[in-house]
Amino acid sequence: MNKRLKEGTYKGKKFNAICLFFGYQARGSLPSKFDCDYAYVLGHVCYHILATGLNGYMATVTNLKSPVNKWKCGAAPISAMMTVKRWSQNSGSTSIGRPVIHPASVDLKGKAYELLRQNAQKFLMEDIYRNPGPLQYDGP
């Protein structure tokens, strides 16, 4: 295009390139049938939460190892995941409560962390992944 602009032969609209980083999107794969079903059901639950006039709730789906018709749908208040943390602007002043999401700590003595620690070098240097084959959007 630049060459044609200089020559005066470009008749198109003004073009501005925009650089954009697609890191996670480029590394991600197409959604599986499970991903599609799960997202659809979450959206359906969200509709029912809104239709009943609730707000401050999060859609939940449990029993995910079972077939879709056995999944359990619900709504959990976001406040159930929160606690009030007290803080004050300076010493001696009245403390103010601020809602925060419960922090989740990593159990450094747990099995998951031990597995990571034992295999950290292998995970770093080798291609360790599972390829389930082509994705299907229909069927079991």
Strand order of the largest sheet: 1-2
Mean pLDDT: 84
The N- to C-terminal Cα distance equals: 49 Å
The string of secondary-structure elements, in order, is: HHHEEEEH
Count every beta strand, where a strand is a DSSP E run of 2 or more residues.
4
**Overall geometry:** extended
Radius of gyration, whole Å:
25 Å
Produce the secondary structure layout.
Layout: H1 2-7, H2 23-27, H3 33-51, E1 57-62, E2 72-77, E3 82-87, E4 96-101, H4 111-125
Antiparallel strand pairs: 1-2, 3-4
In short:
By secondary structure, the protein is an alpha+beta fold. It has helices at residues 2-7, 23-27, 33-51, 111-125; strands at residues 57-62, 72-77, 82-87, 96-101.
Give your account of this protein's structure.
This protein is of the alpha+beta class and 140 residues long. The protein has a domain at 28-118. The protein is 32% helix and 17% strand. It contains four helices and four strands; from the N terminus they run αααββββα. The chain has helices spanning 2-7, 23-27, 33-51, 111-125; strands spanning 57-62, 72-77, 82-87, 96-101. It has a two-stranded antiparallel ribbon with strand order 1-2. Strands 3-4 form a two-stranded antiparallel sheet. The longest helix is centred in the first third of the chain and has 19 residues, at 33-51. The radius of gyration is 25 Å and the shape is extended. The chain starts with a helix and ends in a 15-residue tail after the last helix. The mean pLDDT is 84.
